[in-house]
Amino acid sequence: MSQEFKVTMSFRKHPLAGVMALALAAPGIACAQTSPQTTRTVGPQTNGTIVASDNQLLTPTGKIVQLGSPIVAKAVAVNPNPSTRSGAVLLMDAAQPIIVFDTKTGAVLQRYIPSAVSGTTFTSNTTGSFTGVTYSPDGSKLLFSQDNNFVAVANVNPANGELTPAISIPVPPPPANPNLYNATSANPGGVVATGTALGMVVLNANNSVGVLNLSTATLEKQIAVGNAPNSIVVSGDYAYVSNEGGRPATSSDFTNLSDGTPIVADPTDAFATTGTVSVIDTRTGTVTKTINVGLHPAGMAVSGSKLYVANSYDDTISVIDTGLQKVVRTIPVGVPIKGGAFGAGANGIAIAGNHAYVTLGQSNAVAVVDLANNSANPVIGYIPTLYFPTTIAYDAANSQLVVSNDKGLGAQGSIGTAHGVSAFNTHQETGTVNLIPLPNPIQLVKLTARVIRNNHWDSRNILVGSEYANPNAKPVAIPAHIGEPSLIKHVFLVIKENRTYDQMLGDVPQGNGDPSLAVFAANVPNQHALVQRFPLLDNVYAPSRQSADGHPWIVESGSFYSNDILSPDWIRSYPGGNSNDALTYTQKGFLWSAAEARGLNVKMYGEWSNHYTIAGKPGGGTYSWADFYNTSLYKESGGTAGSNVVPDNSDTEVAYIPSVVKILDPHYPSFNLGIPDQYRMDYYLPVLAAQDAANAVPDLTILWLPDDHTNGTTTGYPLPNNYEADNDLALGRMVEAISKTKAWPTSAIFVEEDDSQDGVDHIDGHRQPVYVISPYTAAPQAANVGRVIHTTYTQENINRTIENILDLPPLTQFDLTASPMFDVFQNTADTAPFTHVPATTPLNIGPGGTPIAGTGAANYTMNMHMSPLQKAWNVASNRMTRGKQGHADSVDENFLNHVIWYSATNWQRAYPGEAHIQWPAKLVASALRSPVVDKDD
């Protein structure tokens, strides 16, 4: 059987199979089978396509409404009055929360700011929201939610669709709850007009729906619904509310928190296990029924007597008969691969005639469903969108679909740009709206072929299962198929924080780097030594924007709707390596739980610890960075230097996910910039030695080494360069220690960043430094020159490589379609140990250029050698970082990026893209206008 036939047959059997066969037979598709393993760089390509940071292709369809940058597009609505020829898109992270556009030409008509509201929680009135924009039935008004606690209502000019202020209605914050992530915002979401003078709005954090009086500009009452309501639609006398968090918990349920609400959850991996729709009688304002649907119901649409609900974590559509008020059909709209693949991400839906059009957030596509087809799988094709579509509307006047794309064109890049947009880092995403004409059957076949290619659904990597594994295969470093034996038995996954490739390795001449951006190169000798012996990978990307989605991309093989839709305001939670939110976990679990299910020995150090406590000092007070640093000096010198200030095991870590609890080391410190990475290694290396002595080195070790995150120029903490030196030395010590164990001949170490948000890169802000270290990695190409590998990789290629080594099933479509890193490895071993390089930069230098701790600490005086500019940034850093050292990304990223750059370049160079070095006041003011102060990393 040919490979082409095998791939074609991998698509599941349903009416789409015929379309798939035609699509795969389209020119350039069937015989070319797209492989995600190329050497292209992220960003715009010469053929007009865009490579997204997760290595999916984006092939724009129809007209693109160019909204500007940086913004994210959360939701879209089309004015039902066709004479206005207008629509509106709800934004987040933009100067104006609403953009009105021409539905015919795609031209931007207006950038609209609502009228201010007195008594709201926040000073800014331009914040946006995660969803919630709609026109009144006659098109005369636009209603939209704002996550700083109000609903705006604007009058619509019937001639051109432009808006003028009408009223703004304050909504109350959630009831007092000590477990709330944000105690001040109701997080208003879906909104609907229920009459000429009435409306209803979802209050996501309140677990309620608010009844709006448009005449008096008041919220008349709240109606309790399910957990974390998302969207609302009206049909007749009833309103229907999708509840992402499902039903309220009972005393017999296992629960996990999400923004203070107990969510009915899985007792192993703590993900939400129910999803519901609340039915509200609008005449009485009461809930009359709760209907069970799929997981994480989000967008909805009504057509006739049917309500269609997009279940974003089930990859299904629930069809509810509104007369019977029950689910009468469930339609799968997931990835059409044999055996299934989680993560298509159904989140929005529109109905046109006999067809449903469903936005698939993680597949950058619209699934086309033939509703007249009563078979089990009535999907007949796909339409490509831009990056992460979130909502969809049908524009009958123009026979087109109108789609909001949260990330749109991506963050773009500084080398190649599309549509006049460029960016240096991960936060500068370019949300868009697509105007897509309804395709005819022939066009749909071609569009489906593009979606298959864009998502690599035709890749040979999808051939996973016992039928593909060779039971007689000889062990190799990276098996061709999951289920075949590997020469590698022990995997170490090390997660670092927030650096770009250029920052660390841009000076290495063999790689594709920019030396002018290599601001930390001189501080990281161990990372340079690693790429002299082990491969230099210069084309690896973190798909994420920040830690909240960066850690999930690593351990969950993706960041999904309930996580991405929060960004960048993060009203509900900031999930990540040390934060907890039941709604951001999926039923596929985690990398570690997949290994546990295989019976493997797994240990975790720091990663996904949700809470820590550090014992106080005897006599009162807390331990400082200097205390931990001096304790490390004492331990490493055998008591001849430093002082043993911090008692052993003073740090206690606690996890809330049961699968983590049993494998988490309780005393290895998680994210805390008040603890040097040397202290972490001083704890971990004896643990490793004991494991080795007992022949009990785990099959999978996951370890967080976080201090390359840095902490601005804050009093009592190292400067950025010195944090980097600490992190580099810790990594070098760890690699040396592993390379001297009995397990080393069968080990592989993967070192990656959770994201690369706090730096700039000349290719793309998502490009990160990655190190793959093993006796089986490819041999150096010359003396002291590691093999240079330009292959396009992401965090998912690392996951897939680990899965092939350890015989783990892929979790989602992202690691399923990803190529293992075959070219990084060879099958002959070089077991020589690695010797770490002593630090070339002091680890303990703080603002002013003098030691924080150690020799001279007693004579340290603040502001000793600082210029007025440096003093201003020091004062601002103290303000912005105070009390936040234990919370990842708790400081505004734009502020932090600037101070890191200025400090690392010795206050001599303007931030890339800017003409002058800035004083901090403007950046501090901008950060403090964030909806949740300083929680937008």
Automatic annotation (TrEMBL):
InterPro entries: Alkaline_phosphatase_core_sf (IPR017850), Host-pathogen_enzymatic-act (IPR051200), Quino_amine_DH_bsu (IPR011044), WD40/YVTN_repeat-like_dom_sf (IPR015943), YVTN_b-propeller_repeat (IPR011964)
Keyword field contains Transmembrane: no
Name of the molecule in the record: Bifunctional YncE family protein/alkaline phosphatase family protein
TM annotation in the entry: none
Signal peptide: 1-32
Sorted UniProt keywords: Signal
Record carries keyword Signal: yes
